[in-house]
């Protein structure tokens, strides 16, 4: 089972899988799986939503599962496991969908990983919830063919051969799903370019500082400024122009009670994105360059409300001055080549054992426990004599810090003692991978075809599709095998534990061990009246251990 949610901070984007609640309740009561199935075919319910606008409430996901469970019964099937990718796009090949990939693998093997519950296919409210790109569609079809499964779309059992024919297209053109996505992207780019040349308003979702689109009264989005937000935007621009840090600007706007266009608190990245975006002075970036008039070379000023030097005290020259101090490449938009060609920063040479695990325990500006990650920092200047330090960098918190040496010494001792108790005397385990035999069979089939081709017994044109199919299936299994071996290696860092093993680990392996046994370490602020130069107090570190890592 997978679960990418962060228990410390609720977010929209996550993937997870779990036993269907109805089945889980039956099993918890001591019931048998066969009795619950009662002859029905066990299948998975897969749900996905591209944009969760309810802050991670996953209402759309829950509705899809409910409909899938109801529709499965129409085909004498029973949903035994849920897979869900929330706030995850299926139209971008660079976006990994962990739940989808796990479901495909479980279907191939006919069993749900870890639970060994049988699995013979999947159901979705529509195929676009499962795949949009042809590559993902072929992955699913190959898995169903290898595992002998079914695919139910809404209330209809789908003919897999028809889907495969649609994806293949029997032509040299892109499959329908890819073609649709490609056309949509092309239209979007074309429309953006046309609007940019004409100085038209941005067609993107509402931006902070401007009103959104409306039918009553009729209004184009991002064309008219929003009076309650505009002063905050101008204040952020002026503050950065005056040399204020991004962190202090972010803290100020959050203290003022302003919220982003989506109703969230501001982060440093959000503030940077707004201040560095030329939209506020009427400019626009297209294909990485500022849109300028072809005849004069001057920036094209858009037909939307924007700041001016005369009316707001900031404008194009202010933006150029701000951008001169920006180092992040993703924010250097529309600037001259000599600015964008700065040499990259050197590689990071210093790492800290407990950075990322340490969390801030100070009450932030919203009267909540900050819980932001503490990162390691190199000491410099007058503080260099105290050594490197961990510090909270959240813009909405006054910050909290501790010396690296003292924290590392104490926590390393705790980790080693914990490992002594829970893993001493254990043995390294080498578990077999569930797809080993299947992978061997596929490779043997491919070798057989290659041999026949070399001998001239078959024509390449006759076996081309079969070879592509075998290679695709082999690639899927090879990837799964690699992940199995990586997970086994991580687990075996703990098993067979001795103190001598710790000394032999590389630094990255030590960090891996720490991440497996520590859920978090909350660093509490130094009590009032106690000097920040007082001796290190380990009692101010609140340690939480991972419960799922214990060997005994």
Strand and helix layout:
Layout (H helix, E strand, L loop, with lengths): L13 E6 L1 H8 L4 H5 L3 E9 L9 H14 L4 E10 L11 H12 L11 E4 L9 H14 L2 E4 L2 E2 L2 H9 L7 H23 L15 E2 L2 E2 L10 H12 L4 H10 L12 H9 L8 E2 L2 E2 L18 H4 L3 H8 L13 H4 L17 E3 L13 E4 L11 E4 L8 E3 H20 L12 H20 L4 H33 L6 H5 L3 H11 E6 L17 E5 L7
Parallel strand pairs: 2-3, 2-4, 4-5, 11-15
Antiparallel strand pairs: 1-3, 5-6, 7-8, 9-10, 12-13, 13-14, 15-16
Description:
The chain is an alpha/beta fold and 552 residues long. 40% of the residues lie in helices and 12% in strands. It has 18 helices and 16 strands. It has helices at residues 21-28, 33-37, 59-72, 98-109, 134-147, 160-168, 176-198, 230-241, 246-255, 268-276, 309-312, 316-323, 337-340, 404-423, 436-455, 460-492, 499-503, 507-517, and strands spanning 14-19, 41-49, 77-86, 121-124, 150-153, 156-157, 214-215, 218-219, 285-286, 289-290, 358-360, 374-377, 389-392, 401-403, 518-523, 541-545. The strands form 5 sheets. It has a 6-stranded mixed beta sheet, sandwiched between helices. It has a 3-stranded mixed beta sheet with strand order 11-15-16. Helix 8 (230-241) packs antiparallel against helix 9 (246-255), helix 8 crosses helix 12 (316-323) and helix 15 packs antiparallel against helix 16 (460-492). The chain is globular and about 80 Å long. The model is unreliable at 170-175 and 336-350 (pLDDT under 50).
């Amino acid at each position: 089972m997978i679960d990418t949610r962060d228990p410390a901070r609720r977010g929209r984007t996550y993937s997870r899988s779990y036993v269907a609640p109805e089945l889980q309740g039956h099993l918890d009561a001591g019931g048998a799986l066969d009795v619950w199935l009662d002859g029905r075919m066990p299948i998975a319910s897969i749900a996905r939503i591209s944009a969760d606008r309810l802050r991670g409430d996953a209402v759309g996901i829950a509705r899809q599962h409910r409909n899938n469970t109801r529709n499965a019964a129409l085909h004498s099937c029973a949903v035994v496991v849920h897979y869900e990718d929330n706030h995850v796009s299926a139209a971008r090949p660079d976006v990994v969908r962990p739940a989808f990939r796990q479901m495909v693998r479980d279907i191939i093997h006919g069993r749900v990983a870890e639970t060994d519950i049988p699995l013979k296919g999947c159901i979705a409210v529509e195929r676009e919830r499962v795949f949009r790109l042809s590559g993902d569609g072929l992955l699913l079809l190959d898995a169903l063919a290898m595992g002998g499964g079914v695919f139910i779309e809404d209330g209809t059992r789908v003919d897999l051969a028809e889907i495969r024919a649609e994806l293949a297209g029997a032509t040299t053109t892109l499959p329908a799903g890819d073609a649709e996505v490609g056309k949509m992207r092309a239209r979007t780019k074309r429309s953006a370019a046309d609007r940019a040349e004409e100085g038209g308003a941005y067609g993107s979702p509402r931006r902070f500082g401007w009103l959104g689109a409306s039918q009553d009264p009729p209004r184009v989005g991002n064309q008219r400024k929003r009076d309650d937000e505009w002063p905050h935007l101008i204040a952020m621009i002026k503050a950065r122009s005056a040399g204020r840090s991004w962190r202090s600007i972010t803290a100020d706007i959050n203290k003022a009670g302003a919220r982003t266009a989506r109703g969230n608190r501001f982060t440093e990245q959000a503030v940077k994105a707004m201040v560095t975006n030329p939209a506020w002075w009427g400019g626009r970036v297209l294909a990485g360059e500022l849109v300028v008039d072809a005849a004069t070379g001057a920036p094209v000023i858009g037909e939307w409300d924007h700041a001016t030097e005369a009316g707001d005290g900031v404008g194009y020259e202010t933006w150029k001055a701000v951008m001169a101090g920006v180092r992040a490449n993703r924010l250097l938009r529309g600037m001259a080549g000599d600015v964008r060609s700065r040499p990259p920063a050197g590689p990071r040479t210093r790492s800290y054992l407990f950075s990322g695990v340490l969390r801030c325990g100070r009450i932030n500006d919203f009267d909540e426990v900050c819980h932001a990650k503490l990162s390691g920092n190199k000491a410099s200047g007058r503080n260099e004599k105290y050594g490197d330090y961990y510090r909270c960098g959240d813009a909405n918190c006054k910050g909290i810090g501790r010396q690296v040496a003292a924290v590392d010494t104490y926590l390393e001792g705790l980790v080693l003692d914990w490992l002594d108790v829970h893993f001493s005397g254990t043995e390294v385990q080498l578990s077999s991978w569930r797809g080993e035999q299947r992978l061997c069979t596929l490779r043997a089939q491919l070798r057989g075809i290659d041999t026949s081709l070399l001998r001239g017994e078959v024509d390449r044109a006759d076996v081309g599709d079969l070879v592509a199919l075998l290679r695709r299936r082999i690639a899927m299994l090879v990837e799964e095998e690699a992940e199995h071996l990586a997970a086994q290696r991580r687990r075996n860092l703990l098993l067979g534990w001795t103190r001598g093993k710790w000394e032999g680990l590389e630094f990255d392996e030590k960090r891996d061990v720490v991440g497996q046994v520590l859920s978090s370490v909350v660093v509490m602020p130094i009590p009032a009246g106690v000097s920040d130069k007082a001796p290190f107090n380990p009692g101010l570190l609140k340690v939480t251990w991972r419960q799922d890592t214990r060997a005994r």
